[in-house]
Amino acid sequence: MSSQRTQSFALTDVGRKREHNEDAYLVDEDLGLFVVADGMGGHAAGEVASSMSCESVYNTVKEHKALLDSFRKSESPRQDVARMLELAVQRACAEVFQEGQRDPNKRGMGTTLEVLLLCGNRAFVAHVGDSRVYLHRGSELHQLTEDHSLINELLKRRQMTPEQLGKIKYKNAVTRAVGVYESVEADLIDLDVLPGDGFLMCSDGLVGHLEDPDIQQALENSPIEMCCQYLIDTANQRGGKDNITTVLAKLPDDGARSEENVREVQLKFEVLHQMPIFQHLNYQELVRVINVTEMRTFRKDEDVVHQGDDGEELFIVLSGTFTVHRGGNTLTEFGPGEHFGEMALIDREPRSANVTAVTPGKLLVVDRKRFYHMVRSDHDVAVKLLWSFLRVLSTRLRSTSSELGEAKDQLDASVDTLDFGERDTLITRTPVPPSHDSSD
To answer: How far is CA 356 from CA 252, 304, 319, 320, 368, in A?
Structure first.
């Protein structure tokens, strides 16, 4: 299966232990749509749930083809595409749930759901359950999705060590699934894509037997049409205890994007990771931060912020030079890779200076409201950011205390050099506050 835009290949296998294959997948390169679903439920209900979900998502995305075309022309914001994917997941969930209510034999059926939509220069992902989506970029493999599973929750809360996982009876229990209830919370992310990027979607029948280094090696050493088969064969050789589905989509490395654009995408991750407040986040978490950003372009001499404005945004310089000035005096300048205004993410203090573009440039902007929404929905990210903020504030407090101490020492040293007459004059000129004694 190939097109000018994307190469893809998909396979599913029943595995070595199961009698029925309850996995399903869908590939439509014209839409840029790829779906993987791992069904659950007795009497072949899991197979029904997964196939229904794939078909429902396809119908919703196809209905909104005009939106995708508009986004590719930069006429619609990426948030509209993300909301459309959210609608697709909720429709699928409602349809599977209603079918389960209609047929008692299917009641309680559900499915995991991974949706990948490649549109323009972005990838959109909707995720429910413990199937996964990986990004293979350059020589690195990144898991973009987080498992909605009992095991993962126990590990995150440090209630169980990896060594104790083997004793869990319900290893395949998921904490979110499509169709069990009438609606479901889906994780939605989107990110820039680069030439040569590869996306692997798979059910847990694969990741239950292969570690990330195994997957990365296969992606780097096998042609796309052979890679899926190799991954499935390896999982079967190691036990094949569940259905196994793999969908691989790879963008051509044809230099379609300019070197400047590629560098811009890479700079987003590099700069965020170098910032003290974000340095402890992993790649998956950095993607979530970038999801709450927007790009803004500024002309030469265009103002970014004005002194006295409410501080509501963090700015990260991707290109160009920006000057900070107040009262006609230049305080400092910022260039690519630098940032300003990070304290606006935690307070509403007015801006203390003006910022203006010295040259044409681009800024990555993090809005406080969207940042708060991300933090509220992800406990792990919230904890990491809280500690990072505390470290930043602690460092600044120590620095300020040190500077005040040095200033005091200098003042004391200056006073010590004065003769007694000069000291008396200095003391005499020190203003004395008026008395407020009520007896007067």
So the answer is: 39, 5, 14, 11, 21
Helices 78-102 and 45-63, packing angle to 10 deg: 140
pTM (two decimals): 0.82
Question: How does DSSP classify residue 377?
Answer: H
Ramachandran category for residue 215: left, alpha or beta (phi over 0 → left; psi -120 to 50 → alpha): alpha
In the chain, the amino acid numbered 209 is H
In the predicted model, residues of the chain with pLDDT beneath 70 are 1-5, 42-43, 156-171, 255-258, 415-440
Angle at CA 294, nearest 5°, toward 293 and 300? 130
pLDDT at 429: 47
d(C-alpha 169, C-alpha 18), whole Å? 18
pLDDT of residue 412: 77
Q: Quick check: 101 and 107 in contact, CB under 8 A?
A: yes
| Beta bridge partner(s), residue 9 | 248
Q: What is the pLDDT of residue 424?
A: 54
Measured CA to CA in angstroms, residue 238 lies from 22, 107, 231, 242, 283 at distances of 20, 33, 11, 11, 29
Residue 191: name the closest of 280, 60, 285, 296 by CA: 285
pLDDT for res 3: 42
Phi-psi region of 104 (alpha: psi -120 to 50; beta: other; left: phi over 0): alpha
Residue-range domains of the chain with CATH: 7-256 (3.60.40.10), 260-380 (2.60.120.10)
pLDDT at position 426: 47
